[in-house]
């Protein structure tokens, strides 16, 4: 299989590229500037709506992982516009470009997130659950809708709804490690909010599974089968680092520090089940948080 990846140098993209290469697949990269990375490279500029259409031809699948980071900086109006536009406009442009090819790829897998569901308390959420309310759910809905031009051209579209990725190399866990390592870790707010997470190897494994499994289409929850509360996560991370994790951060302090993002991402409760992955037989390498943390920290 010949697979083109956007965001191949990022946390998930680099792990996916390595996983696919080990399986013997040919990996190409959708890039803004050529680099020394191996394999074919296709140039594009989603802001200027420029893409090498000829270079896009011949790929069996495309995995789109781009998007401005959600958890970096306060959500000013400008930041929120970048979050939305980097996902919606770039995805729509790529989907339209794929639809116009003489031989479109068989599959288009596009990043999404469990933020689609919003703050839902203790409700168990599957791919059939409706979107929540607020900035992240609305952005998630538009993000997934932006893939429609490819679907209308007969391409199998998969919306990868990622949970929190457990990796020391980047993402949310990397940001949490410094205070926990110094013994300043603790629950956020009540600690009762659910966190849907997944290990980095399982992210790559689940995407590879979705690439090869033609029955998978539409939204697919890329999360562990065992979500945890923030309190449980705090205890597990403290134990993995052999550090106390008993200094809570009150909800008002989280809101003071992070503004709107606090309620939308840090204090929100999202309990997500990977129903489609389980139904299609995906075997998780790290179904439990403790093993995932040990694996990540040892890496």
Q: Fraction of residues in helices?
A: 40-55%
- Please summarize the sheet with the most strands: 8 strands, mixed
Tally of DSSP β-strands: 14
The CATH superfamily appears as: NAD(P)-binding Rossmann-like Domain
- Following the backbone from N to C, one meets helices and strands in this order, namely EHEEEHEHEEHHEEHEEHEEHHHEHH
Distance between the termini: 28 Å
How many domains? The number is 1
Number of helices: 12
- Residue stretches low in confidence (pLDDT < 50, at least 5 long) are none
Provide the CATH topology.
Answer: Rossmann fold
Name the CATH architecture.
Answer: 3-Layer(aba) Sandwich
Tell me, briefly, the overall form: globular
Strands ordered across the widest β-sheet: 4-3-2-1-5-6-8-12
The computed structural class is alpha/beta
CATH class category: Alpha Beta
What percent strand? 15-25%
Q: What's the pLDDT, averaged over the residues?
A: 96
Task: Explain this structure.
The protein is an alpha/beta fold and 299 residues long. The protein has a single domain (2-298), classed as 3-Layer(aba) Sandwich (Rossmann fold). It is 40% helix and 18% strand. The chain contains twelve helices and 14 strands. The strands form four sheets. An eight-stranded mixed sheet has the order 4-3-2-1-5-6-8-12, sandwiched between helices. It has a two-stranded parallel ribbon with strand order 7-14. Helix 3 links the parallel strand 5 (61-64) and strand 6. Helix 8 (230-241) crosses helix 12 and helix 9 (251-258) packs across helix 10. The radius of gyration is 19 Å and the shape is globular. It starts with a strand and ends with a helix.
